[in-house]
Amino acid sequence: SGELTMAELDDSVERIVKLKIDRGIMNVNDDTRTVEEKIATAKTIVGSDENRLVEREISAEAVTVVKNENNILPLNPKEGENVLLIAPYNNELPGMQFGVTRLVAENKINSVNIETHRYSNGNLLTDELKGKIEAADYVIVLSEMGNFSHLNANHWITAGPNSIVDYANELNKDSVVVSVGKPYDVAVHKNSKAEVIVYGYKGMDPTEADGGLTPTQT
């Protein structure tokens, strides 16, 4: 069903903690705190500013640029330019938008106009999407694969990014393909100008963000 029960989550956590104890990563013998005290400490750590900073540093270190023609990356949009974010699933778009919005808030990029679009099986390079690409200054599209069959050029999950990139190239738009699943799909996007591997496709619920800036999920 794709859902995990609390019992399954508890089992997973127990295995992780046991492994850390066995490997000497955690020393519980000298820890005399009560369960309540441990929970209180955990609540001050998980989701804290320091914790978020570490999460971000780890994520940044995992990003791999595998293609960067004409030094498209890093993107440096001008004030008021249009950035189009495209993904195959709706739950992936909020995270993309969150990332751009945060960069603007941190003054790391200029303020830009953000447009989003979802491509899907049977709805790839539609007239609507063409119009959005035509209006965009930068196009960022997510690509992913779950199994070997997805590498077929005719499979919608691969045909989608390819058709988007080809159309952006026709219009001389700067476009970036971001591989968010298993990284082998980068080999099938031969016409892309820039490709990045990020190894993570889990989406983001828009209700998990406060004002588009601060994640509330811990």
From TrEMBL:
Signal peptide: none annotated. Keywords: Hydrolase. GO terms for biological process: carbohydrate metabolic process; peptidoglycan turnover. It comes from the Bacteria. GO terms for molecular function: hydrolase activity, hydrolyzing O-glycosyl compounds. Belongs to the glycosyl hydrolase 3 family. This is Glycoside hydrolase family 3 C-terminal domain-containing protein.
